[in-house]
Amino acid sequence: MCNVHSLPATEVDSGAFEARLINALNESGLMLLTAIGHRTGLFETLAGRPPLTSQQLADAAGLDERYVREWLGGMVVGGVIDTDPSAGTYQLPDAHADLLTDRGPANLAIYAQFISLLGNVEDDVVRCFREGGGVPYSRYPRFQEVMASDSGQTVLPALFDAILPLAPSLIERLEAGIRVLDCACGRGRALLAMARRFPASRFTGYDLSEQAIAWARDQARAAGLDNLAFEVRDLSDFDVTATPGAFDLVTTFDGIHDQARPRRLLKGIHRSLAPDGVYLVQDIHASSHHHLDRDHPLGTMLYAVSVSHCMTVSLAQGGEGLGTMWGRERALAYLEEAGFRDIRVHQLEHDIQNDYFVCRP
């Protein structure tokens, strides 16, 4: 048997790298299957149930058995689902169900959708590598939906107990009644939650996506929230169109780095704040230097998101193309350039993906 330590370093490195790539191919396939399991409801159907045959599972989920059976094969090989070959049954362990359904604190199957979602625009991105330019928002019909699910796990569960309290006395001010703006609000789930919790305050959401704003308006109308308004708005000129001193609190949740002109938006946010106002920012936790992101637990994935969405949608608008991984150093520089002088940076235990900045004029 060959002793690996006797091989030249290049051969050892090559072998290890080959093994890593093969593992990455398997894990990528697992993520595609995981996204399918999430979207078809297979994980939810399996969770907490006794062992089922492929036919029983297909019937319970209302799906085609042949597809379900092949999917189960991938889940068994991937170590996600257990099987009893003698009985021909399959079972999702409770510990796995807690991470793949809404039963646990975080449904990680939601994030698997990014792989297939971004892979769908690969041809467009390759064209941009050769010709420049970007891929427009219209090529991502489900992105707002997936981001809303992401926000539902990172922002909403911690909004009242951890995020808003980062700014001293902010909860009390919201209870008394202040004016709040969320820029790049998407489907507005944070605003919907705050409008319910703080009826004395007035809330406004701006976003470029007509589909996202339509969804948010429907939700606000159904909930009878008359202290909440949404507006389709291009924020690339917000530095000159923002009404001075119009808001006491402005928020952005992962909303700066894919803007066409992030500097202008930040200057507009500063302009729109009252003298005692607060700007609360959630954005990606990263460094502005590639070599310092090597140990980032989600670094490679977030660069993939940047190339295939955040950077390119900005470039499609003739924008800066800041990218997902713009980093804390650049974020601080942009905030200071916008006029903010009191900037505090926080990280929350539940959220390894984001930094939280509390900024005052």
TrEMBL record:
Q: Which UniProt keywords apply?
A: Methyltransferase, Transferase
Domain Methyltransferase per the UniProt entry, residue ranges: 175-288
UniProt-listed InterPro entries? Methyltranfer_dom (IPR025714), SAM-binding_MTase (IPR053173), SAM-dependent_MTases_sf (IPR029063), WH-like_DNA-bd_sf (IPR036388), WH_DNA-bd_sf (IPR036390), WHD_Rv2258c (IPR048711)
The answer to keyword Ubl conjugation applying to this record is: no
* Biological process according to GO: methylation
User: Which Gene3D superfamilies does the UniProt entry name for this protein?
Assistant: Vaccinia Virus protein VP39, Winged helix-like DNA-binding domain superfamily/Winged helix DNA-binding domain
Q: S-adenosylmethionine-dependent methyltransferase Rv2258c-like winged HTH domain location, by residue?
A: 29-101
Write down the Pfam families for this protein, in alphabetical order.
Methyltransf_31, WHD_Rv2258c
Q: Which GO terms describe its molecular function?
A: methyltransferase activity
Listed PANTHER family: METHYLTRANSFERASE TYPE 11 (PTHR45128), S-ADENOSYLMETHIONINE-DEPENDENT METHYLTRANSFERASE RV2258C (PTHR45128:SF1)
According to UniProt, the name of this protein is Methyltransferase domain-containing protein
